[in-house]
Amino acid sequence: MSTVKGYLPLTSAQRGMWFANEISKKPANNNICEYITIEGSIESDIFISAIHQTIAEAGSLHCRFVQIDSEIRQFLESADSYEVVLNDFSECQSPESELEEYIKIHSTKEFHLTNGRAFEFSLIKLSPSKYVYYHCCHHILL
After folding, report:
1. What is the domain range of residue 52?
2. Could you report the per-residue pLDDT of 82-94, keeping only the tens digit for each?
């Protein structure tokens, strides 16, 4: 394995996840997603700020992947520009149904490992006193 300046080799676990992703007929099966229901009102701006802080401190979320010749490499990139989405379903006729559909769509979304970030964070408002925190990332980051 050659050294390419500014890029790091994948760990053996990452390499395994990379190849599993490449041969999978359903790459979204490599996603790890979770949501947490928050009962009670929250300050969404403060919560989103806390998510940004978490992203800033979680080094693995800064990994990006690139193929150089026949080798896959990783490099670190700032996640400062990542926008945490606030979805407001509180005005929908059925906020819980909207949530189910959102999670179904987003948890089965394929992360293209050489094209952008391999994670997603969002805050979903179901009512003034009920929120859902959702996050999903490709297993290669963990």
Report:
1. 8-141
2. 999 999 999 999 9
